[in-house]
Amino acid sequence: MAHAATHDHHDDHHGAPTNFFTRWCMSTNHKDIGTLYLIFSLAAFFVGGSFAMVIRAELFKPGMQLVQPYFFNEMTTMHALVMIFGAIMPAFVGLGNWMIPLMIGAPDMALPRMNNLSFWILPFAFALLLSTLFMPGGSPAGGWTMYPPLSLQTGSLAYAVFAIHLMGISSIMGAINIIATILNMRAPGMDLLKMPVFVWSWLITAFLLIAVMPVLAGAVTMLLTDKYFGTSFFNAAGGGDPVLYQHIFWFFGHPEVYIMILPAFGIISEIVPTFARKPIFGYKAMVFAIAAIAFLSFIVWAHHMFAVGLPLGAEIFFMYATMLISVPTGIKVFNWVSTMWGGSMTFETPMLFAIAFIILFTIGGFSGLMLALVPADFQYHDTYFVVAHFHYVLVTGAAFAIMAATYYWLPKWTGHMYSETWGKVHFWSSVISVNVLFFPQHFLGLAGMPRRIPDYNVAFANFNMISSIGGFWFGASQLIFLGVIIHAVWFSKKKATDRVWEGAKGLEWTVPSPAPFHTFELPPVIRDEELAHGHVED
Amino acid sequence: MTQQAGKFDQEARRKGVRRTAWAVGAVAVAIFLYSILSMLKLS
Amino acid sequence: MTSGGIRPDGIKPAFFKRAAMAAAAVAGALFTGMALANPKPGQLNMTRGVTEWSSEPYFLNNVALGVCVVIGVLVFGAMFIAMFRFRKSRGAVAEKWSHNTMLEIVWTTIPVIILIVLAYLATGGLTSFADTTGSQMTVKVTGYQWKWRYDYVDYQGKAIDKVGFMSKLDDQSNDTRQLGSGLDPNAVKADGEQTYLLDVDKPLVVPVDTKIRFVITADDVIHSWWVPALGWKIDAIPGIVNAAWANIKTPGTYRGQCAELCGQDHGFMPIVVKAVSKEDFAKWLAEQQKPAAAAPAADASAGASASATAPAAPTKG
Questions:
Q1: Which residue of A has its CA nearest to C79?
Q2: In sequence order, which residues have a C-beta less than 8 Å from that of residue C8 and are 6 or more positions away?
Q3: Environment class of C6 (CB within 10 Å of its CB; exposed 0-12, middle 13-18, buried 19+)
Q4: Cα separation of C80 and A359, whole Å?
Q5: Do residues C209 and C284 make contact, with C-beta atoms less than 8 angstroms apart?
Q6: For position C303, what pLDDT does the model report?
Q7: CB contact under 8 A, A309 and C177
Q8: A466 close contact with C: CB closer than 8 A
Q9: Any idea where the domains of chain A sit in the sequence?
């Protein structure tokens, strides 16, 4: 590799430090930090998953068999917090860290030391959050949304709030880093409208993070002062307003759900063209659709609050705005299908997950459209229908995209091919079980089962049992995922080529597999035909 | 791997990164403060 | 000024209604056994409900479901055809195109049109729900951790004095739901119905064919008052009074639950609404208003005194 004569401030430019502590804890390398994020996220995925197993076990049949109701509420709350802030978001940040510099021809992230800090805050934040489970009085149990006044009854509120502050600081620093990287570190010739869709999706997501994480921090800070310093932001008796919190929270919360899905759109937009061997259909439309969704995400927050008694005009506005989101989302789905049309497709594990993503995420989108209709939402709201909806978009959406990305880039990261057989076993086991798990929850919600209840009437027994069986099966399937990763990292004998996939395009496939510790120390020359979406002439 | 040699301004890039980071970070802090201040009912 | 609220059908052109009904029939064919008031084992679709308005969400649910099924079949169908026709193993060679402006315009426009129709239907249903004027009865519902309180405010233009009571989970369900009670939830029955966690000690008794205005608030944390058969839920929020209405058409016992997480016993504060004929209701009301002397009325009087001390929730404009 050509040596960068122009800058030589560090003397460790040619390989990873051999000392374990120096390499991992003091790392400023985007690849190592990306790996740390991904490992962290996988660990959180299993921790959050184990909480879900407790939930599904208690709901296996009517009657309280295993846990006290309060502990059940702790489980639902912590499951959500760990999965959202610990599994999904860090996974995308990890993927962004690893792939964005490789995709835009940058030598590293723009702010490598801040990168280290934003990762290493996370383990401490989660230690703080999870420690509440072992405290007298227990962890937060008022739902991940932490609505006051209920959340103000939680003894460990301060721990949860500080944990969220730390996670927020971590996310904001990560977002600043990604924005600075994408805006400043692109190789000459990598124009904005030549960037891979994944990079675009992360750029837009990073702006969403910058706009809403501070709002969440503000909201939880007000909870903190309400509980400990006698303020009355949300206390009706003191002239405050409990609904105010919900407005602020969902002003964060709705963009947050797009923060968890836009990078997934980006990933799918990388994978589908690769395995269809055809450039992505409507590159610009894809980018603009992401931007449109991001913009709309700021004006739909109150659709989470249709049952709080909003004025009629507000309900109508938020209903229309919410329904509007299905237009850009529809464009994305149609474009993915069109990318496949006329291609030359093969179905390796990443493609299987991507196809499952498109179908199942769309089902989640359909139930989202139904939820947008306010009169119907008066029935759906806070039932298992909602639970089914957001698990379709977050598990078979975000999580499946992360799994697809893992299979897709794992050979580039490790230099070894994963076991295709076991990858497919993992896929089929997951995709069947996840539907056994979540599809019956639609019926439960429609029949009238509220969410977040530890026990239920016997009328709901059959579907809950099916759902629980699917849940255990899905949980167990993820052990296969873990096995495939461990095998690919340490035991696989099959070397990966640089290109890895026959149809793969983009700068990340021009570097060797595994990607060397330092890449693109000098910016590469960009050739349009090497980009994933081909030429963009119009 | 083809690489581009020569006239590539590290210093300009460094400056750009710094400016972007400060601008975006300032926006984040401002939003945080504003979210709380706007909820204060100062009479 | 009651007309706006009472005839939701009147504001929809027949064309939309017919087209939507056809879609609803498609959806209905997929999901049988729906016109149920209380949850039944294996129930697949939303209840039609028993009130004048409750068919709105049911109707919208079916229309939207039908629309989604049709779009889903088309999109996933195209995708599966692509997956079979354009496989590399069948010798497919990748084409090069990546644009088709006409197609892109078409699939942006069609969803917009579908959305406009759906939005139109939903707006009608929403507007009729929002009109709580012209009610013939008012009931105040207050959520507590973890029980409900009902106060009868007025009926047919006359204020009702001191009729109000707490309503909480029935003892049999409560014993059964304790951790490791060893009792069988299937054994909890009332009138042949399996009422585990869906029965209370004192139900809310209301007359049929009466537009009842519910004013809903809470005393401690946020709850949500939901009876699926009435077609809506609305949050009970401390410091805020929400209003909603229902005009029940069929006498019967309708069961629901708190729908907003409100602490450890959130799952154990059911709601039971007993709709009776107007005559029976008048009798029942007179019974309640008798001075607390007879033994059964004892807890009613307890309720009445609680009513006097119950903190008045400040109204938010």
A1: A337
A2: C53, C56, C124, C125, C128
A3: middle
A4: 10
A5: no
A6: 43
A7: no
A8: no
A9: 31-530
C245: which strand partners? C213
Output the six-digit token pair for A13.
């430019």
Fold of A31-530: Cytochrome C Oxidase; Chain A (1.20.210)
**CB count in 10 Å sphere of residue A480:** 17
**Closest residue, chain A, to C234 (C-alpha):** A307
Q: Which residues in chain A have Cβ-Cβ distances shorter than 8 Å to C118?
A: 323, 369, 373
Does A304 participate in catalysis according to the annotation? yes
Place of tokens 């047919």: C156
CA angle, corner A380, sides to A375 and A386, nearest 5?
A: 135
Q: Look up tokens 């809310």; give the residue.
A: C204
Which domains, ranges and CATH numbers included, belong to chain C? 3-130 (no CATH), 137-309 (2.60.40.420)
Q: Would residue A332 show up in a list of annotated catalytic residues for this protein?
A: yes
| Tokens 């007879």, residue located | C294
Segment C175-198 shows an average pLDDT of 90
CB A170 within 8 A of CB B7: no
Residues in contact with C72: Cβ distance below 8 Å, sequence separation at least 6, in sequence order: A362, A363, A366
Which tokens belong to A498?
């640089």
User: Angle at CA A78, nearest 5°, toward A76 and A79?
Assistant: 65
b/e map A208-221, b = 16+ CB within 10 Å: bbbbbbbbbbbbbb
Q: C30-56 burial by CB neighbour count: b if 16+ within 10 A, else e?
A: ebeebebbbbbeebbbbbbbbbbbbbb
Active site residue A10: no
Per-residue pLDDT of C294-310, as tens digits, reads 544 444 444 444 444 44
Q: What is the ipTM of this complex?
A: 0.89
Predicted TM-score (pTM) of the model is 0.90
